Amino acid sequence: MSTMDASPETNTGFKRVRVIDHISRMVRRQPLGTGGAIVIILMVFMAVFAEVIAPYDPEANSFEHMLVAPSLEFLLGTDQFGRDLFSRIVYGARTALFVGFACALVGAFGGLILGVASAYFGGWFDLIMQRIIDVFMAFPLIIMALAIVSIFGTGTDKVIIAITIPFVPRCARVVRSSALAIREMPYVDAARSIGYGHMRIIMKHIAPNVLAPFLIMLTAFLGEAILLEASLSYLGMGVQEPTPAWGLMLQGGAEEYAESAPWVPIWPGLAITIAVFGFNLFGDAVRDILDPKLRTR
Amino acid sequence: MKMLWRSAATTAFALGVAAIFGPASPATAETPQYGDELRLVVGSKIPSYDAHIESTFGMIHPIRPFYSVLMRVNPDNPSSPTDFVCDVCEGDVPKPTDGGTKYTFKIRKDVKFHDGTPLTAHDVKATFDKIAFPPEGIASNRQAYFKTVESISAPDDYTVVFKLKNPTGTFLPSVAMPYNFLYAKKDLDAHGYTWHQKNINGSGAFRFVEHVPGSHVKGVKYENYHHKGMPYLNGFTAISAPKMSVRLQAIRGGQADIEFRGFPPKARDDLVKALGDAITVQESDWNCVLIVTPNHKVKPMDDVRVRKALSLAIDREGGSKYLSRIAIVKTVGGVVFPGHPLAATEAELSQLAGYGKDVEANRAEAKRLLKEAGHENLKITLHNRGVDQPYKVVGTWLIDQWKKIGVQADQWVQPTTPFYATLRKQKDFTISLDFNCQSIVNPIADISKFLPGAGNNYAEFQDEQLLKWYDELLAEGDEAKQRAIIRKYEKRVLDELASQFITLWWYKINPHRSYVKGWKIAPSHYLNQALDNIWIDQAEKKRQLGG
C-alpha cells in the first residue's frame, strides 16, 4: 500500500526534477534563448488572458481621455481616440501571435511539402519547382507581401495570405537542400528496394530527417511574420482600425503625436521590438540545439 | 566719446526722417514684391492634366496655375459664394438677359496661350462645348452642371453667348468652377479631346516647365499674362509628398512654404508651437462633407429601419466637439454647406433623425428600430478609403458610435483607385464612407449628389419624389421657395429614406510660412489656386530661413 502510494510521488518527483534539470540546463546553455522563450510565454499569456489583463475595452473611444499621459488610471496613457494603450498592447499581442503563428505554420508546412516533394521526385518536377521558387525569392519579403496585399486587399485574413505566400518558397528551398542529401541515403534505397511507396518513404524516412531545418525556419518565420504584419499595418495595408494591432497603433500615432504625446508611438514600437527580439533569440537557440555542428562545439 | 557722438547723430537723423515720413504703414508693408519662387507641397498624385475629367486637388494644385478660366471666385474674397470676377472675360461678370436665359460674355483681347496663339471666343466656346456637350466616348466630369445650357455660340471673335433652357442661379457658379480650364480650339481640333490629358498649353500666370512624376511640377512666370503686373512670383514648384508627416516637416524645416489642402488641428498646433510667428494660420469652413452611403441593394441596408438606426447612433455634436481636435472635420450640418442661406438652421436640423440633442434617446430609438427589423446583433463592414484625414479617423469614430447601439462593425479599407472601383463598378459593399467635395459653394448643384441615379451617388436606390423635387428646384428662381424645396428634399434623404446620411462637414486649416502673402483661404481646396496674386516677403523669408 505504502509502496503503491509512494511510487507515483517518487515518479512525479523524479519527473519534476528532470524538467527542472532540463530548464536549468537550457538556462545555462542558452541564456538568450531562454530570455526569448520567456518573452514568447509572456506574449502567449497576454494573448490568452487579454480579457482578464486589459483594464479597458481596447476599441472603445473615450474622448474625455484623449492623449492622456501614462498614469495610474491609464498605465501606458491613451491615444488620440482616448483608447487605453495598455489594453490595446495586450490585445495587440493576440493579433500579432495569431498572424505570426498562422503565417509561420502554414508557410513552413507548405514549404516542407514542396521542398521534400521537389527533392524526392527530382527531374523535371524539381527543375520547374525551383525556377518558380527562384521567381518568388527574387523579391524581398516586404515587396512581395505589399504586392499580394494590393491584389487581395487589406484586413487580417488578407495579411496572413500576403505573408504566408513568400514564406513557402523560402522554407521549401532550405528543406529541399536537406532532403536531397537524405534521398541518397542507403536506408532510403533500402526502403525503395523492398517496395515502399513514395508516400511511405517521404513520410517515414525523409520528412522526419528534415525536421531540424524545418523547425529552425518555423521559429524564424514567427518573428518575421510579426514584423511584416506590423510593417504592413504601419503602411496602412494590413490590419485595419479599430482592431488592436501594434503596427497599426504605430501608424495612427507615430506621425502626428511623436512629439507632443510620445507615449502613443513608443509603447507599440517597444512591443514590436521585444516580440521580434524574443522570437529571434528563441529561434537562434532552437537552431543551436538542433544543428549537430553547432551542438558539438 | 567720438563713437557716442556719431551714434547720437545717427539716431537723431533717423528720428528726423521718421518724423517727416511717418512710420511704415501696414499698407506699405503689404505692398506686393516681385521675385522668388513658391514651393508648395501636394499630397496626391496627378491622374492627368485634363481638369475637365478630373476632380482631385492632386491635379488642381500643380496644374491650375498654367491655365485661365472664363471667370472665377474673387481671389481677394474667396470665402464669398457669390463674389465672382472675370478672368478672361472683360469687365464685370455679365447679368442675364432674355428673362434670365442668356449670358453674354465679352472676351479680353490681350489674352494669349503660352504657345503665342491669341485666345478668342472660339476657344471659350470649344472648351465649354467639350465640358457641356462632350462627344460620344469623351468623359466630362461636370457635364451635369451644365444641364440647363441649351447652346453656346461665338457670334464674333470676342463674344460668347450661353443660352439656357430656363433661368437658374446655378449657372454662374458652374462657369466659375476652377476645373473649367480654357483650351485652345486649335489644340482640340488638331490633337483631339484627349490631348490635354498629357499636354499643357494654357494661358495662365505660369508656363509649364516640367513634371517629374513622384517628384515635382515646375512652372515659371508667364510674361504675357493678361492680368497686368501679375504674377508676382518668378515661378513655383509643386512638390509631391503623399505622406502628411513629410508635408508637415517640409514646411517646418523650410523646404516648402505652403500646403493648400489643409492639416489637422494637431499639425497646426505643432507648427505654431515650433515656429511661432513664422507661421500664419488661415481657417475656414470647408465645402466638403463625409457621407455614409448604404448599398440599398444589399441586405440589411434595403431596410430603412436599419439605415435610420445607423444614423440615429451618431452623436454629431459630440463628434464635432472632440473629433475636430484630431481630424479635419468640425461642422454639424445637413445636405447644404452650413452657413449658406439655403442651409438648414439648427432648429430645422434638430427635427431630422440623428440630429436631436438627446443622444441617449436617439440611440434608444435606434435600438428599437434594429430590434423591430430583426437585426439586434447586426454585424457590418464599413468600406472606407485608405486616406487618414479624415476618412480613416471618421471611420474609426463611426464604428465606435455604432457599437453603442450594439452594431459590430469592422473596416474594409482600399486605396483610392480600387475604392472607387468598388463604389462604381463592383458595387459589392454593404455600407461605405463617401464624400461630397465641391469647389464653388453652389447648393442646388451640390445636393445633386443625393439624387438617386446621379453619377456620383452609389447608394443604388430609386425615388421618384426626390427627382421630382429636384426638377422643381432647378426651375425655381425664388430663394425662399428654393429653401422650402431643399428642406423637403433634405428630410427625405436624411430622415424618411435615410438613403444616405451626413457625418460631419470638414474644416479647413492652412498653416503656412508667414512670408507667403496674398493668398486667402477659400471654403474649398480647389479654389483660389491660380497663384497669380501670391508674393513672397523676401526679407521675412531671409529672416526665417537665412541665406
Mind sketching the topology for me?
The complex is a heterodimer of chains A (297) and B (547).
Chain A (H helix, E strand, L loop, with lengths): L1 H28 L1 H18 L1 H4 L31 H37 L1 H15 L3 H12 L3 H28 L2 H8 L4 H9 L4 H24 L11 H12 L5 H28 L1 H5 L1
Helix pairs in contact in A: 1-2, 2-4, 2-12, 4-5, 4-7, 4-10, 4-12, 5-7, 6-7, 7-10, 8-9, 10-11, 10-12, 11-12
Chain B lengths: L1 H20 L4 H4 L7 E6 L14 H7 L7 E3 L10 E3 L15 E5 L14 H12 L16 E8 L2 E6 L6 H5 L9 H7 L14 E7 L3 E6 L13 E6 L3 H9 L12 H11 L3 E16 L9 H9 L3 H8 L5 E3 L14 H4 L9 H14 L6 E7 L2 H16 L4 E7 L1 H11 L4 E7 L5 H4 L17 H12 L3 H18 L4 E13 L2 E2 L17 E2 L1 H8 L2
Parallel strand pairs in B: 1-9, 12-13, 12-14
Antiparallel strand pairs in B: 2-3, 4-6, 5-6, 7-8, 8-9, 10-14, 10-15, 11-15, 16-17
How would you describe what is shown here?
The complex is a heterodimer of chains A (297) and B (547). Chain A is mainly alpha-helical. Helices cover 77% and strands 0% of the residues of chain A. In chain A, α10 (211-234) runs parallel beside α11. The longest helix of chain A has 37 residues, at 85-121. Chain B folds into two domains: 37-257 and 515-545, Periplasmic binding protein-like II (D-Maltodextrin-Binding Protein, domain 2); 284-507, Dipeptide-binding Protein, domain 3 (Roll), CATH 3.10.105. Chain B has 18 helices and 17 strands. Chain B has helices spanning 2-21, 26-29, 57-63, 121-132, 171-175, 185-191, 244-252, 265-275, 304-312, 316-323, 346-349, 359-372, 388-403, 416-426, 443-446, 464-475, 479-496, 538-545; strands at 37-42, 71-73, 84-86, 102-106, 149-156, 159-164, 206-212, 216-221, 235-240, 279-294, 329-331, 379-385, 408-414, 431-437, 501-513, 516-517, 535-536. In chain B, a hairpin with a 3-residue loop joins β7 (206-212) and β8 (216-221). In chain B, α9 runs antiparallel to α12 and α16 (464-475) runs antiparallel to α17. Residues 1-28 of chain B have low confidence and may be disordered. The interface between A and B is medium-sized, with 21 and 30 residues.
